[in-house]
Amino acid sequence: MKNPEKDVFIRKGGPPDLPQLYRLIKALAEYEKMSHQVRARLADLKRFGSGSRPFFHFFLAEHSGQAVGFALYFFTFSTFEGQPTLFLEDLFVLEHWRGQGIGRTLMSRLAEEALGAGCARMEWMVLNWNHPAQAFFQSLGAKPVPEWTLFRLEQQEIARLTRKPLNSEKS
């Protein structure tokens, strides 16, 4: 799919694109003022984003072979719907490229992917302070789900829950 304003192409990413994806993930973390929280390494993306059953999939927005945005997603399953859900982990467009319709085009490609996979819905989270993102998603018809609160267990708590020691070595 082409964005005629800036000759931006949206395509499904694969293992050879992981270095560009990693660069954009670091740019996203910088934008969100969370660079200090990025523990992911390129080796992690290669390990979990490749093979016969990757844990995530992604689309890249490219201009002249350079990635300028991405949408990283995976599938979950809704027990109430009895159908899969496409979960959007991150959508990001480099600042210079915002306002060109790239985010909307990425979301459109995700919607096509969701329909093709038989998904009942698409879901994602937005930081409370990120009002531009909230406005963007609402312009697409998305609605916040105020009656739900995100809970998280991190590695220490997961290990404690299993009553097994945490393996501090990262593969």
Outline the structure in words.
This protein is of the alpha+beta class and 171 residues long. It has a single domain (2-144), classed as Aminopeptidase (3-Layer(aba) Sandwich). It contains five helices and six strands; from the N terminus they run ββααβββαβαα. The chain has helices at 18-31, 42-48, 102-116, 131-139, 155-162, and strands at residues 2-3, 8-12, 57-63, 66-78, 83-93, 121-124. It has a six-stranded mixed sheet, sandwiched between helices. It is globular and about 55 Å long.
Which secondary structure elements does this structure contain, and how are they paired or packed?
Layout: E1 2-3, E2 8-12, H1 18-31, H2 42-48, E3 57-63, E4 66-78, E5 83-93, H3 102-116, E6 121-124, H4 131-139, H5 155-162
Parallel strand pairs: 5-6
Antiparallel strand pairs: 1-2, 2-3, 3-4, 4-5
